[in-house]
Design brief:
mainly alpha; two-stranded antiparallel sheet; single chain; globular
């Protein structure tokens, strides 16, 4: 009887197997997913939950506990705005605007978020409020310069003349008139503070400028003149255009020059975070990144073509290089412990200045390689510390910047050899990341996501805007294949005063050397992807500036 029962059970199992669902297919790592190989168990980015969390922060009053962040208004705006931009919240998929590469099929439907009229108006109002909030954080500051410095600096002279317009025809050159009375001239500069009527500071200035650049690009890159995004975009560009020279003057007053050697050459030039504030390498990056976006690192001399821009003086690179430690990373200042955040700021600043070769890149590569944890997959910020989600960008982004520099250096050497051999130049190839991008994506998607929206440091830690921003930025770097990041000549960029892409302006060039009409149609290149690739892909962030590459290209074309 037992044998008969066992045979009957085996027959039942066989019958059940014939009607059981097919085995779960492997995780889809292709660019676009399909219903045929949909995996219900694949790990996915909780896009809608993150969007709701970030929107709630921008549209509703924050709890009283956020009073501790009263000096971080521009930062909170930037963290949430950049995160929403990476998630494709503002992307328009229609005939008049190109969606970001990789976001078209990320579970947002055929038309992104639907973009019904009410949704468009809500997004426009949000962008307007962002511009207004950031604008109210601006603070004018009286600055004093030597007469000779103003006379020899084209930007300072232009700013001074605008602020000191007089009717006396004999006093056209105001700085010369002032020279007869005093050795200094007064110029009204300024920067963005952490909130309304707060002191200007390099850190919130960085966040404010990047936020305005995102809004300006979202609005003014649209081809349709009546596109609803153009109103906040135009206002953001007006603020940037109005304040850029004042920012330049303010940044000059933050310089802290070092001693000179026997030859009279400055050993190093550092920057303060604010007047009478601390000196560290963050200031150099938070100052140079906005200058790069606002076209303030160009030739700055009316008399000749030589670049006498004080913000590009070699002593700045020398000071940053002096912050490299024996481990290979960078500290806040010389002799400090190597730290992931300061390492990124130092390396990105050197990349903007074109001076990466002044440091020990081998030691830096070795230090960065040891920061990814073999078990967790995420990055630690310092030696013998725990993994932290925000270092997905600070350390992962630093690796991307350094790998990109290696790739550009190799391409330049190959081009020189080809030119010597008389061969045609080859297009710059993509470069692989020198860390395990699969492990990092796994940590972010499995450990850093909060199921209710938002991202965090690690499990058991609370979610917040900061970690949401830098986890998503790190995810973006890990997903998108590296491409060349070069300093492009401004003369090759369009300087159209219309600040937009018109229907008949299809040949308008951007910093990548291509045209906007073709840019959105180019097929995106990806690294190895983990989880459901049809949902997990976010927009491509610029690893040096940390806003989407479309926003950087647009801003570079405006000055």
């Amino acid at each position: 009887r037992i044998e008969l029962l066992e045979e009957e059970e085996e027959e039942e199992v066989d019958n059940n197997d014939s009607s059981s669902p097919p085995p779960t297919p492997p995780i889809n790592n292709s660019k676009k997913g399909s219903d045929d190989n949909f995996d219900p168990y694949a790990i996915r980015l909780l896009r809608s939950a993150h969007v709701s969390y970030l929107l709630n922060a921008l549209t509703n009053p924050l709890s009283r506990g956020f009073v501790s962040l009263d000096a971080s208004h521009p930062w909170m705006v930037y963290w949430c705005l950049h995160s929403l931009d990476l998630l494709g919240y503002f992307d328009v998929v229609d005939n008049n605007a190109n969606a970001a590469g990789g976001l078209g099929g990320n579970g947002l439907g055929d038309n992104g978020y639907g973009f019904e009229e009410i949704e468009v108006l809500q997004k426009v109002e949000l962008l307007k409020r962002i511009v207004s909030t950031v604008e109210h954080c601006w603070k004018d500051v009286p600055l004093y310069f030597e007469v000779e410095q103003v006379a020899n600096d084209a930007r300072l002279k232009t700013l001074y003349d605008k602020q000191n317009v007089v009717n006396d025809v004999n006093d056209v050159n105001n700085y010369k008139s002032t020279a007869r009375k005093t050795s200094n001239v007064s110029i009204t500069g300024g920067g963005f503070g952490g909130g309304p009527q707060q002191m200007p500071h390099c850190a919130p200035t960085y966040a404010a400028v990047l936020s305005l650049c995102i809004v300006a690009s979202l609005g003014l890159e649209r081809k349709k003149e009546d596109h609803p995004y153009r109103t906040p975009g135009r206002r953001a560009m007006e603020v940037l255009a109005k304040r850029r020279l004042q920012l330049y003057a303010y940044f000059l007053t933050l310089r802290e020059r070092g001693t000179t050697d026997d030859g009279g050459e400055e050993r190093g030039t550092a920057f303060r975070m604010q007047h009478d504030g601390e000196i560290d390498v963050r200031a150099s990056y938070c100052l140079l990144a906005p200058c790069y976006l606002l076209g303030l690192l160009d030739v700055n001399n009316d008399k000749n073509n030589s670049n006498n821009n004080p913000l590009q003086h070699p002593s700045i690179s020398r000071h940053i290089a002096s912050c490299q430690t024996f481990e290979g990373g960078f500290g806040a200042e010389p002799s400090n412990e190597a730290h992931g955040g300061y390492t990124f700021c130092a390396l990105a600043a050197l990349r903007i200045l074109g001076s990466v070769s002044t440091i020990d890149v081998g030691a830096l590569s070795s230090w960065l390689a040891r920061r990814q944890m073999g078990f967790e997959g995420g990055f630690q910020g310092r030696t013998n510390k725990l993994v932290d989600g925000c270092y997905s960008f600070w350390q992962g982004g630093a690796v991307a910047v350094l790998d990109g520099w290696y790739g550009d250096t190799i391409d330049d050497d190959e081009e020189k050899e080809e030119e010597e051999d008389g061969e045609e130049k080859k297009t710059s190839s993509t470069t692989e990341l020198s860390y395990d991008e699969i492990m990092l994506q796994r940590y972010i998607l499995l450990c850093a996501q909060d199921v209710n929206g938002g991202l965090r440091d690690k499990p058991s830690k609370p979610k917040d805007f900061y970690h949401s921003c830098y986890n998503l930025s790190g995810l973006s770097v890990a997903q998108h294949a590296l491409v060349s990041w070069q300093q492009f000549e401004r003369s090759t960029l369009s300087t159209s005063s219309s600040s937009c892409v018109n229907e008949d302006d299809e040949e308008k060039k951007t910093s990548s050397g291509g045209d906007d009409a073709k840019e959105g149609k180019q097929e995106e290149s990806y690294n190895r992807l983990w989880g459901d690739a049809s949902v997990n892909i976010v927009g491509r962030t610029d690893p040096v500036i940390n806003i989407r590459v479309e926003r950087v290209k647009f801003m570079l074309s405006q000055w």
